[in-house]
Design brief:
154 residues, alpha+beta, OB fold (Dihydrolipoamide Acetyltransferase, E2P), five-stranded antiparallel beta sheet, 5 strands
């Protein structure tokens, strides 16, 4: 979970567009909630709270996937899968019977690629299951933002 501060750019139909100004980080890139990418301002669509107006400063809670699951899926699972593929290849004699090393390499590579595919599918499903950004607090101070200024940049 990440806590960010931003400025409300517009509020329509119970949804608010919040602009966050910060330098992107690895955690920010993994999240997948933001519209833009890189070291630019980010626009987030969040549920509005009563009394929220354009120009209000807000504090947001942004859900993010677990770093440790990502590391284990991208580094440990493929290596372990490669080793398991090599072990399975020693038990299979009907594929390339005269070339045990080639068989082990091919099976290891096959298991390695399958584990990367499974990691990619898991990553997509976790991003879909993240909670939407939520407004934690609102400062009533206005930051001189008009809807016209917002419309130009969006």
């Amino acid at each position: 979970m990440k806590i960010e501060e931003g400025v409300v750019r517009s509020v329509t139909d119970g949804k608010a567009v919040v602009e966050i100004n910060n330098i992107s980080s690895e955690e920010c890139a993994r999240c997948g909630v933001c519209i833009s990418a890189g070291d630019t301002t980010r626009l987030l669509h969040v549920e509005s709270v009563p009394g929220l107006e354009a120009g209000n400063k807000v504090t947001l809670k942004i859900d993010s996937p677990s770093l440790y699951k990502g590391i284990s899926l991208l580094f440990f699972l493929p290596v372990v899968s490669f080793i398991i593929g090599c072990i399975v290849a020693t038990k299979i004699d009907f594929i390339l019977p005269a070339a045990a090393n080639a068989r082990m390499g091919l099976m290891g590579l096959l298991f390695f690629l399958m584990s990367l595919g499974l990691a990619a599918m898991y990553d997509r499903s976790t991003k879909k299951n993240l909670l939407p950004p939520e407004i934690l607090s609102v400062e009533n101070g206005r930051y001189d933002v008009t809807e016209d200024e917002y419309a130009e940049g969006y």
